[in-house]
C-alpha cells in the first residue's frame, strides 16, 4: 500500500510548537495531577531553566540525556527541557533493576541524567552529571554561579528526538532512535485525524518507558490542550479508571488494549465527555458494544515506527469469526505485506508486515548489524535512501483495504501489551550458576491470559527454589519480564534440528513446578477460602499464605478480578489498592476480616447469621 505524501507544517521540533502555545495562552492549563496544576507559562519556564542547565553541561543536537522520572507532570518538564536544549531524551523507569538502568545509560552514551529529587538514589552511579528536579519541576542547583549559558544551535528535523529501549532477542535491550521529523509527523497526523483543539482534555496512563507516552503528551501540548495524569490506582482498576475519565471530563484517551477490553464491558455514564478511546499495544479480541458513547479506534505500530503506523475505527459487529482489523496506514506511511521472496502478496494472503515512510526510526543505537537486518532498502520506492522496517508481524489485506493482524513470525511476544523477547529472559536464566539450560516461552493459561513460563534444567548439585529464581531475575530484568512460573526438567525437548521444541514442553503442574521448600499452609477457614480464590484465579495447584500475589503471576487486571471475587464471596467492598498493600493470602485474609468486622458491627443478628452461612465455605 503506497500512501500519497501528506504535507505538514515545517517546524524544527515539537518544543517549538509547545513554546508557541505558551506564548499565545500562557495561563491555560497544560498538565494536571492529583495535587498539582501546571499552566503553559509554568511548563515553559521550568523547561527553559532546565534547558539552560543542560546547555551548560554541553547538551545539544544528537546528545542523548537520561530521563529517570516517575509518571508525573515533572516527567514532561524533564523531557521538554531536554528537547529545548536540542538534545534527545532517553526514558528510564525508576523501578527497573539497577543493572538494566546502568546498561541503558552506558549504551545510550549519556553525559547527563535528569531525575526527580525523591528518586535520585535509583540512578546508578556513572560518569555523567545528575540534574535533579524538585516536585515543582525546578532545577535544584540552578543557576550555577559564574557560569553563563552557551549559545548553541538547536535541533533540526533530522536530529534525534528520543531513544526508547525495548526487549532484545540477543539478551540485552536495544535502543530505538526516533528523529524529530518522525515525531512531528505523528503529532500532525494525530491532530488532524482526531480533531484536537485547545479545549481538549487528554489522559496520561502509560509508563514513561512505553512509547505510547510520547503519543499521550506531544500532540496535545502542541495544540494548547491539557494533559491529565491519572492516579496510579485508577490506572490499575477498570472501574476506577472509567470513573476518573468521566470525572475529569477527558475527551480523548489512550488505553492499552488489555485494559480497554475491560472498560468496554462496563456501563458508561451517558454524560461522559469522552469522544475517542484510542487503543493499541496488543491484539483486540472484542468489538465495542452497541450504544458506547465514544468512538473506539484500534491502532498498531512498533516502537521502531514512531508509535503508530496504522489506525482505524472499530464499530459494533455481531460477527465473531474474525478479530477487529488494525486499520489503514496513517499519513506519510507506507504498508506492504510481503512473502519470503520480498514480493507483495495478493489480497487476503498472509505475509510479513513491512512499514516505510517518515515514521521509520533511524535504527538501533550502537547496533549497526541489527539495524541493517531489520531496516532494509525499500524496493518499491524511487528514492534510494528509503527503507522498510521488517516488523516480524504476520498480516493480510482485507477486501476493504484494512489490515488484519495475524500473529508473529518469530518468538517475540506481548504480555498485557508489553513487548518481550523470550531470548532476553533465557539469557538471564542461563546466567544463574545452578542452571545448565533454560528457555522462556509464553503460554495461554486461560482465554486471553498469557503468561511467561521459565523452563530450567538444573545442575545436579543445585537446589533451585521459586523465590531464589525470582529474586535472581528481578535483579536483572523488569518485573513484567520475570516468569510467573518455573518448570524443572531433566532435559529440554529438541526438534530434529537440535532446537528447543516449544510444542513438546509440558504444561506446569504440581509434579514439575518449582516451589519454595518452606510453604505455609492456610491456618484458618478464612485463609483457606482466600487461598482457594487465588488458586482458581491464577490457575495454581497450591498457594502459600505468605506468597505475594504479584510474584505468583498476578497483575493489576487480575487484581481487579480478585477484588471482585472477594466482594462476591464475602459481600465486602475492598479498594484495589489493598491488593498492592496486602498482597499475600495472610495479609488479604486479615484485611477481609477487618472489613467483615466493620460490616458486622452495622448488621442485625439475622443478617450476621446469614453472612456466616454464606462465607464459611470457599465459593
In terms of topology, how is this protein built?
Blueprint (H helix, E strand, L loop, with lengths): L13 H11 L4 E4 L4 E3 H17 L7 E5 L4 H12 L3 E5 L5 H11 L3 E5 L12 E5 L26 E7 L7 E6 H14 L7 E4 L7 H10 L4 E4 L2 H5 L1 H10 L4 E5 H8 L11 E5 L14 E6 L9 E5 L13 E2 L3 E6 L12 E7 L5 E2 L3 H7 E3 L9 E11 L5 E6 L4 E3 L2 E3 L1 H9 L4 E12 L2 E10 L7 H9 L10 E4 L36 H14 L17 H15 L6 H5 L3 H16 L4 H11 L4
Parallel strand pairs: 1-10, 3-4, 3-5, 5-6, 9-10, 11-12, 12-13, 25-26
Antiparallel strand pairs: 1-2, 7-8, 8-18, 13-14, 14-15, 16-17, 17-20, 19-20, 20-21, 22-23, 24-25
Helix pairs in contact: 1-2, 2-3, 5-6, 8-9, 13-14, 13-16
Which CATH top level class of one domain fits?
Mainly Alpha
The spatial strand order of the largest sheet comes to: 11-12-13-14-15
Radius of gyration: 25 Å
Secondary-structure class: alpha/beta
Helix run count: 17
What is the number of E strands?
26
The first-to-last residue Cα distance is 54 Å
CATH architecture of one domain: Orthogonal Bundle
Structure, described:
The chain is α/β, with parallel strands linked by helices. Among the domains are: 421-504, 2-Layer Sandwich (GMP Synthetase, Chain A, domain 3); 525-615, ACP-like (Non-ribosomal Peptide Synthetase Peptidyl Carrier Protein, Chain A), CATH 1.10.1200. The protein has 17 helices and 26 strands. Helix 8 (238-247) crosses helix 9 (257-264).
In short:
By secondary structure, the chain is an alpha/beta fold. The protein is 30% helix and 22% strand.
